């Protein structure tokens, strides 16, 4: 399978490509401005690998939780390329990527609580078993809530949000942006029909239209 992976969920603008047993990745930590560099990064990666766009067979893209704007950029690019090529797109949650990456780093796999910073004093979190099956939907809660959950369930913790749980908690990894290599692996493994490229915000965006400014429909 020839698979293109796109991640713009958080501070990185990352792209990856698998063709047979060969793999290429490009990772740029930019914070913002994903739209300005993403398409050039994809074109450069395909040129480096000598893979024409017409040869792509599947695309994988991160769907959140993450930056509202970043998610829209990556998902729109993935959908647009897939529409032209008529190929499937797999939407992969960022918390799942963090959990799978953590499991790969463990000598003895155990259930994982993947965590990312959210707005204010909250964290995004989701629990996974040792086979990386989700045990619950993702949620946004306080650090204290997740400390209690990790202790009660005997979870390992991973992701940048895990660093906010306080002293005595040692994360398996402290990454914020998801691993592009893990995204490539999951993109090849997951069923596109079950994992569509739909944004997973968990919480609504900060900005919302003012109800009083809306024009009534006739």
Automatic annotation (TrEMBL):
The record, for SUPFAM superfamilies, names: Actin-like ATPase domain (SSF53067)
* Gene3D superfamilies listed in its UniProt record: 3.30.420.40
Please list every transmembrane segment annotated in the UniProt record, as residue ranges.
none
The Gcp-like domain is annotated at 32-126
The organism sits in which domain of life?
A: Bacteria
Using the record, list the residue span of the signal peptide; answer none if the entry has no such feature: none
PANTHER family, sorted: TRNA N6-ADENOSINE THREONYLCARBAMOYLTRANSFERASE (PTHR11735), TRNA THREONYLCARBAMOYLADENOSINE BIOSYNTHESIS PROTEIN TSAB (PTHR11735:SF11)
**Protein name, please?**
tRNA threonylcarbamoyladenosine biosynthesis protein TsaB
| Origin species | Kaistia geumhonensis
| Source lineage | Bacteria, Pseudomonadati, Pseudomonadota, Alphaproteobacteria, Hyphomicrobiales
